[in-house]
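Protein fold
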Amino acid sequence: MTAKTKSSPLFLGIDTGGTYTDAVLWSEAGGANGKVLAKAKALTTRHDLAVGISGAVDAVLQKAATDPAAIKLVSMSTTLATNALVEGQGGRVALVMIGFSEGDLARDGLKAALGTDPVVFCPGGHDVHGNAAKLDLFGLEAALPELGASVSGFAVCAYFATRNPAHELATRDLIREKTGLPVTASHELSAKLGGPRRALTTLLNARLISMIDRLVAATDGFLAARGIAAPLMVVRGDGALVSAAFARQRPIETILSGPAASLVGARHMTGLDNAVVSDIGGTTTDVAVLDQGRPRLDPEGATVGGFRTMVEAVATRTFGLGGDSEVTLEDGALNPRILLGPRRLVPLALAGMMHGEAVTVELERQMRAANPSRMDGRLAVRTGVPERLAAGLTGAEARLYELIGSTPLAVDKLLTSNAQNATLNRLVSRGLVHVAGFTPSDAAHVLGKQANWHAATARLGAELFARKRDGRGQAIAASPEAISERVLTALTRLSAEVILETAFAEDGLDGAATVAHALVQRAVDSHPGIARLSVALDRPVIGLGASAPLHYAGLPPLVGHDCVVPEDTDVANALGAVVGQVRVSAEARVSQPKEGLFRVASGESVRDFNDEAAAIAAAETDVRAIAAGRARDAGTDSAEIEIASEFRVSTVEGQRMFIEAHVVAVASGRPRIAV
């Protein structure tokens, strides 16, 4: 390392993914794009995230022979929130709806997202101009003792809270006073109308708080222990950086944090302005588009796990497809297809490495059975999360949870009925239990294309899977190698499908998934049929992720363009985390409840003016001050602020009539670094 590099500030990037935690040490010295000084990986340890973080960062520090005190900024991206929503995980929370009816739960997927979590309806809320109905919190206050003992947090959404947040603030204060639990209010997350979708966003935020809180706390503790006195930043879903404290309050904004960081990293590493970026991890594949050097943002809000939120984020499509995807068979077919995902399993090779004979003994026992079972090759183990997160289990769930420990237990021994399988799946969804099973990562170990875990355990899993029967009662594969080849081929084919599906969707085409499947199927079919179909992307694919060189080698003929896999593709997210900027915004609305009265709703205040110009000026002053404050909270002392105003007016008998104005301030700047 040169003297110049030593004297330059060092930046530490961390990406905590579903399977691996990556770390990269980067310096601005070393050319226009800086220089990666060292990179490393460690397994993500969900029960104690600090273990995985320390493993990756310690390895980086050792490789670079760097004094930790030289690190002046730490920035982190994470797929934990994204994975949690895709897999249906998160804490149990209570939703408080003010001024809404039960019928509103049927809108925007709110009822499906709520599941079995409790909901409380309270009279109150406001109209479109911010005028209040009567607030009644008596029923909520009576329910708080029981709710406070069974949930990890609360989500509060009031009717038209974006025009007047007073009822949300009163409710938030009451809940905090009586329970001491985290409370998310909808106006804190979005200034957009659409109560049920805002409630959905607030609900998901509340579920994620404990998960992101553990991540930030683990990282803070590790940095302090290593003597790294640098600000900690987190990548938001739009690619911007925010302080860890900011992210703790608004964890929903970190959904798609990993994909956003990967886009920043992909652009940084390749210099390509136009590309389709596909990032394959252990749990998900995230596909997005680079246009003229910038990621496309989703104007309608991020969609993850089937839920359309109000979070501004990169226009990324997230698929439950990765190296650790669950491998299953199509039901009822004579020649059943290999199905992958969307659920993540702990690969058997990884379980074998971590738990040794506890895994191999059970798999060998199942191999000795005369006939295959649907439960072969499956084991259950506790995730190790704090016991308080197991609050609210049903009797059946609690009994099954008691049987599962920190050592993997074969599912065929654990479950005595098919009904219990649904109970086990609910424990998995709560993030309390992991299921280990055969995955593409195991297939790669069988074929010698991956060698970081326990290959012998992977082979046992492949043998068990190959014994499964097709519709004619025959084994589906002749050998572990044969089934493993089929699994990896299926992963490449499905990767092509999700890339093409994203491209079609970005072009506004209906039926994107069906068309993508048909085109890829024709491309791999040795008898393509009378109608010859082909498709080609107009830009290359940038393949990201540690397994991208393996799974994307066969992509070009399926997508009709090159696939570029950068040298540091395995740490693209961690690298993207340290080259971004802080970016926050603030909004105000100016309405006219009656002629000559102009109402300004900004932040948590509502004020009236008798003059339009004065109201607009006040709105601009407010959003500038709010954006500046949020920028400081988000981690920059050098923010530049831009203000834009949009007016809705009409003309009546030749006279201009003011309807509404929307004023937005955007503050951006480089994050502050340690001196």
Summary: Residues 240 and 582 are 5 Å apart (CA to CA). Confidence is low (pLDDT under 50) at residues 1-6. The chain has 22 helices and 29 strands. The first helix runs from residue 3 to 7.
